Amino acid sequence: MLNGEKREGKVVSVKDDAIKFVYKGETLEYEFKKSQINKIEFASGRTEVVNNSVGLAAAPTSTAAERKGRIAVLPYTFITNETALNPEAMGKQLQTDTYNAVKANTSSLQLQDPITTNSLLARQGLTHANLNTKTPQEMATLLGVEYVVYGIANVTNKGTSTYGSGSTTYNGKETEKKEGRKETTKASGTTYSSNNATVLTNYDTKIDLSFFNDQGTSIYSESRKAFGSGADAYHATINYLIKRCPFGTKAKN
Questions:
Q1: What dotted CATH number matches 64-159+199-243?
Q2: Which part of the chain has CATH 3.40.50.10610?
Q3: Is the pTM for the entire model greater than 0.90?
Q4: Tens digits of per-residue pLDDT, 66-115?
Q5: Cα–Cα distance between 101 and 125 in angstroms, integer?
């Protein structure tokens, strides 16, 4: 990609202005604009240049005074065994959710919106896959903030549960041979079916949240398992952790 990111998988089709792509190990198709693509390296060894890459912008600098009281949330590291969830997309979704939680549950901070944060990262060729190439101190200077929020979400598919059923009764006769005689017995009972069953996928979710200042010092680091088994159980967990950060409404004095 022109932003320096590398995507591995299979090109399904090519259109005039876009390509359809499937990530390695997945089946869901994604479409990317050709204007975003630098080149395509095929398994055969052939390379097709779509757009020439441009040089990275010079890393921005900022003073301590300019960074004072400002905070930015990075895209999350998203770990999952669920192939239907895209780690990059989920990482940005969690970034936005955390930004909103900081906005709602803290005071005395000036927030940098995720669009600005991600734009500054892209100019330096930084993606969710290589954010750890910068130290927290370097990241704060690059983004022009005093505090940087890092998050890790671990979402594990634990299988499915089925709820609800229908029932029917039956009556019948059964004939069996017993000691040379035929005997007829009456049978009745209940059979269960799943005509009205609901199948739910259960997830085990854990959120790790860390705050660093522009000196590279960790000022807050907490982990918490989500209450509930839905795929979006992380919402309440993020709010819980943000409320208890040093700037939160439930921070310890």
A1: 3.40.50.10610
A2: 64-159+199-243
A3: no
A4: 999 999 999 999 999 888 889 999 999 999 999 999 999 998 899 999 99
A5: 27
